[in-house]
Predict the structure.
Amino acid sequence: MKMKLLNSLFLILFQTVIAENYHSCISSNSRTFRQVYLNPQSIQSENFVIHFTVDDDDFQNINGQLYSLQSSFEFAQSILDLMEPTLDKYIESGWEMPPPDCDESITDVNSAEHCNNFGGNALYDIYISNDGVGMVVPENLYPVEPYTGGRTSFMKMSTMSNQYSTLPVWAHHVVAHELHHSIQLRYGYSVSGNPGDYMYNGWLFEQTATYMENVIFPESIHLRTMLANCDVVTPLTYPSYGINYPAEIYPYRSALWQKFLVESQGDSSIIRNIWEGYGIEYASEEPVDLFPIYNNSIRDISNNEYDINDAYKDYAIWRYFTGDRSVGNNYFDESSYYCESSLLNFENSLQDISLSNKGGTKYIYLPLNEINLKLSTLIPEHINALYLTIDIDGNINIADLEINELEQYLSYSPDNLSEHTLIFYSSYINLTDNLYFDLELIDYINGDINFDQILNILDVVLLVSFALEEAYPSDIELQTGDLNVDGVLNILDVVQLLNQILN
């Protein structure tokens, strides 16, 4: 009874830890050993073998604490029954098989390569243990063309503290998730290009495995549940984070990015395309940059009509329409279940607004009154903006804003609008730092066309250039320079401005 209680506490503790901290369900330590049982049992199918024990005296030492390893034939069979059809779905979709972990033709039992050291045969090994809900452990290099950087692996699945006679339905997604990790390792072990350095771009492993749960088990609500939680770090609660943010189990929740790519293009093969591109790059033994691979895959799937810059833009728009802001079946198909994306409410100024250059977004909710803003940034070429409006009839309009100056002036008059929002997102650039900008509320002086709060000859020169059509004013420059309010900039405005300055 005491041991069962400890097991229950362990499962609860594990679920709490994984909810608060980044936890990879691929072990980065290839020295993690295969499970050893006092009384080993096994059952197998065409492609898998499940290793377990039914002995209630068999324990596992986890950080100095003993936990029962006892399971049952029924529980093992329930995992096996899910593994084969799950693998079939992956193979039917064009994914590679998990590599065999040994060569059964080796008959010398003293050889380190003999299958006795790898579960007894070349079938994929799954051990029922208590290392976590699920874990895949990379093992040996599998240098077979075309993905010569691939690895063999084995899997560990939880006993679920013996509280279930078969794997519960709510845990079926774990099978799809972990099996996808096993398949991923066929393409490559480390996404950094540095062998053994798994964590650098490890987000790709967890993102894709989490999204593929829903491909295999469409009824799974794992991702939906994570995105419905407004009290944790997700691409909705922290939209300024990049798609590659590595901490606080964000890589699981940022499977929303994979979901976006699939739903926006209507083709789930884009995820496999990304992994194939990664596998080829990794096999070259050169450092791997995932973002060019993403860009190439997006272009391939769209016949060069769409690229990663377009994806960043639409990903920003789609994430706006979640929760109570969802619009029917538009954008994400489960958007109404999700938390609303976080907004910044603008008052007088916002300083050092930051967003990741890897798909980060900021939503700035504007007040429903006439407003004049100054946007300042040192990198206008790398920041993109949208002006989103919804009128009182519910009609949505989204317009691109050109940001091409270190200081940009924006003016809005929200007549007939129920809401209007500025959406900022990054371009596809290879920068390591976040992007920063400021927004400031300003009062315009009629005639102050360069917005330096002074009426002088500089404003006259600029107004003359507009009047002669040597340059063309922005909407806000037209508004400020049209002193006689006739809708055009001409010599009459120049004369009036000179009179104001002289007087």
Q: What stands out?
A: Confidence is low (pLDDT under 50) at residues 1-23, 191-199.
